Amino acid sequence: MADILRERERQVYRKGQQQPYQLDCEKQSVAGSVSQRACVFCGSRVVLYPIADALHIVHGPIGCASYTWDIRGALSSGPELHRLSFSTDLQEMDVVRGGEKKLHAALCELIDAHHPKAAFVYATCIVGVIGDDVDAVCKRVSMEKGIPVLSVHSEGFKGTKKDGYKAACDALLQLVGTGPTEDISPKSINILGDFNLAGETWMIRDYYARMGVEVVSCITGDGRIDDIRRAHGAALNVVQCSGSMTYLAKSMKEKYGIPFLRVSYFGVEDMSKSLYDVARHFKDREMLERTQGMVREELERVMPLVAEYRKALEGKRAAIYVGGAFKAFSLVSALRHLGMTTVMVGSQTGNKEDYEQLRELCDEGTIIADDSNPLELSSFLEEKDVDVFIGGVKERPIAYKLGIGFCDHNHERKEALAGFEGMLNFAKEVYGSVMSPVWRLTPRKRATALEVVK
Amino acid sequence: MSSPLRVPKNAPRPNWVSTRNPCKACAPLGATLVMRGIAGALPFLHGSQGCATYMRRYIISHFREPMDIATSGFSEATTIFGGGANLHQGLGNVTSQYHPALIGIATTCLTETIGEDVHGLLHEYRAKRTGAGEPVLVHVATPAYSGTHVDGFHDAVRAVVEQLAEKDASPSAYASGFVNLFPGLVSAEDLRFLKEVAADFAMPLTLFPDCSETLDGPSMKKYEKIPEGGTTIAALRGTASAKASIEFGRTLRTKRTAASFLQERFEVPAKRIGMPIGVHESDAFFAVMEKLSGHETPEKYRQERGRLVDAYVDGHKYLFGKRAIVIGDEDLVVGLASLLAETGVVPVLCASGGKSGALGHSIAEVTTHLREPAAVRDGVDFMTIAEELALKELKPDFVIGTSKGAKLARELGVPLIRVGFPIHDRIGGQRILHLGYRGAQQLFDLIVNTLLEIKQESSSIGYSYL
């Protein structure tokens, strides 16, 4: 059984084995627990990162810029300014004297060199502590250069990743509402919370195009400043990655009266439901029929192939640990399509409703964990004899060290996992990992094999 | 618009204020690598949660191994009222979960800026926790606004030795006449090689840090909370009684290092040599080993040297006059420049994000016979390097250095030969051998074959023999 810190006992739940149900979440990580979470800056940086024609400059010492250079597989169909790393690289004397002058000079030279459509300035931990007035610098540069220069208050210690999402949304809200909205179709949407990892936004855009829905902006996958500025002209906000983007959707509802839908593009059921929900929202029978036709066509193409993988994967056990809990719902059902059981599921930043929904979705005995850490995760993998672990870069070595398959469902993946095609890719990747012959050589499986021989 | 190469020819080089595509990471990262090289130790960052997570990710992506880094996880209140409570709670939790023999604490920019007295806080903590089974605590100041990950690395090596070395500590595992070796930031394979060399010279060695197993371990049935391996605490305490200390790194001349501390404080003679990359720098290393061990270089290494020189002869035509850009940590760059220069390659630009102040001088020392002196840029970033190349029309044939140079190499249309740290876009960075004749042999073959492949691929007919 896992060695769980006393302070964290209420953040781990085993379905059916603990009554009554309780799971604490949305708490500051316990000091010394080696949380898999990042910080406020990380939340802001990942959300805004895919905006490809903006300048992103990290105000602070070099680390935060180094660790986020070209960090996400967020593709662009045009400019690639987002893939460069810019920092004020504050030095000791800047810390003593303040970094405002340096920030001003850095912004000016970079804007002159790259002609971005806007600039985002990420304030990191020490910026507030040394007393820099980032807002004032941004305002000044904005006047001088004639583009929006937006401060993102992402000091690492000022909360969790979720607060970083909010800071990012606050910056976006300054852009929304500043562009022209003529010529926008009444059947139009903004795609919120898809980041075009491995080109996923393009797949989703294609589905909407086939349905006859106009996409005004994608926030932020393959994102463009001018699109975001006119996002208030869309008739509906379609929100994936609800953890990061619900705040933006709610704010746009309040300010511009735009309704929003929560969707997920992972797994065939959630993907289909998302498209149907959008079609139903527009109360357009033809659109609904077109959507049905498209979904049928995609399913007929994809599902026979998925079924082939299912034959091999039936009965295998999976564990999931992701950033936002919403993605976990889709993964649990996608794994069911492959005949697999989810025996452990957790997230860095899930909330009460998320976990309640996960509990309903999961089988008896499933472990649900909030803000877990390597020692807990490794013990869950061992205890549940997991065949494949689905997570991000920091989870990968935990699985691999124990001779367990792994599927990257995070920022760095190179395979599209969203949409119908994504289900196929997901099946292929899980199959490719679970069925690899290498596990037979690992101590974990060898021991089992020998026992069988006995 | 995003291509840094589209700079007009002969345009004056602007004096950039910003850092664009950095060629360095921050100081605490280097310190966590050092702490990982101590037996039974867990690295701990005093600062925000994100620092630990980002550095874990950066390190994991190179080593593909678990890398747990604990943190005190600052909140807004902690920043205002001080991080003492969080530090104490964090140390307590790490102790109860990991049962470490040592916790290696490094500060971050935040804790340095608010002026945390880590030394005092640890003193308080020790006074409170007097029971058995408490870990040894060592700490190092690594303000991220000063220096690079390499400075953090060397500062951590010195801090650990300063805090643990004791005059009469007997490192019982060792016979008398042992030597300290501070290799700097090298690969796990390099560290295994150094231990092999010492064993072959029958010379007892305290190698620090030693990540050869802790960051390149075998497949496991049970998850190890703290992986096996690393320099033992006893060996670190005993460093004061060594016969001598060897440290790798010509650019360390500007720094106060572990070796210089042991020399000043305990009169352990310090011998600084270049990172042993290529024949010349390896000769210097083996000469030191001969002198300190009293044994001649074993036949095995003589053979390796002989085969390496023979290979240099076999491949010399393919390298002579080729032009290379060398990018990475300063001492790696110096070593590579030495290897390139001795094989006829012109290192047209040697660049590093580090700024020890000794890079230019060190490069000059190892490339004395070059007809065209190498351009050296320290404290530089990748976009500045790209602009420099465009302006000076340096026309490189290849880039050799960390994987962070991939974008630059791609824009230049030349291959990147990946060495050093980090290598984030390939597997096996931890298993690259850079050091000794054997490491030089592998690097040399790799460089020659990379260039041959281009020649063959770009030939209209291809060919079957060289």
Description:
The complex is a heterodimer of chains A (454) and B (466). With 454 residues, chain A is an alpha/beta fold. Chain A has helices spanning 40-48, 63-66, 92-97, 100-114, 125-129, 134-145, 161-175, 200-211, 225-229, 242-256, 268-281, 285-313, 325-337, 352-361, 374-383, 396-401, 419-434, 443-453; strands at 12-14, 54-59, 86-87, 118-123, 149-153, 188-192, 214-219, 236-239, 260-262, 317-322, 341-347, 367-370, 388-391, 405-408. Chain A is 46% helix and 14% strand. Chain B has 466 residues and is α/β, with parallel strands linked by helices. Chain B has a 5-stranded parallel beta sheet with strand order 12-11-10-13-14, with helices on both faces. In chain B, strands 3-2-4-5 form a 4-stranded parallel beta sheet, sandwiched between helices. In chain B, strand 8, helix 10 and strand 9 form a beta-alpha-beta unit. In chain B, helix 11 packs across helix 13 and helix 12 (299-319) runs parallel beside helix 17 (436-458). The radius of gyration of chain B is 23 Å and the shape is globular. At the A-B interface, helix 1, helix 2, strand 3, helix 3 and helix 4 of A face strand 1, helix 2, strand 3, helix 3 and helix 4 of B.
Q: How would you summarize the topology of this molecule?
A:
The complex is a heterodimer of chains A (454) and B (466).
Chain A: E1 12-14, H1 40-48, E2 54-59, H2 63-66, E3 86-87, H3 92-97, H4 100-114, E4 118-123, H5 125-129, H6 134-145, E5 149-153, H7 161-175, E6 188-192, H8 200-211, E7 214-219, H9 225-229, E8 236-239, H10 242-256, E9 260-262, H11 268-281, H12 285-313, E10 317-322, H13 325-337, E11 341-347, H14 352-361, E12 367-370, H15 374-383, E13 388-391, H16 396-401, E14 405-408, H17 419-434, H18 443-453
Chain B: E1 19-20, H1 27-36, E2 41-46, H2 49-63, E3 70-71, H3 76-81, H4 84-98, E4 102-107, H5 109-113, H6 118-128, E5 136-140, H7 149-164, E6 179-182, H8 188-200, E7 205-207, H9 233-237, E8 244-248, H10 258-266, E9 270-273, H11 278-293, H12 299-319, E10 323-327, H13 330-342, E11 346-351, H14 359-366, E12 375-377, H15 382-392, E13 398-401, H16 406-412, E14 416-418, H17 436-458
Parallel strand pairs in B: 2-3, 2-4, 4-5, 6-7, 6-8, 8-9, 10-11, 10-13, 11-12, 13-14
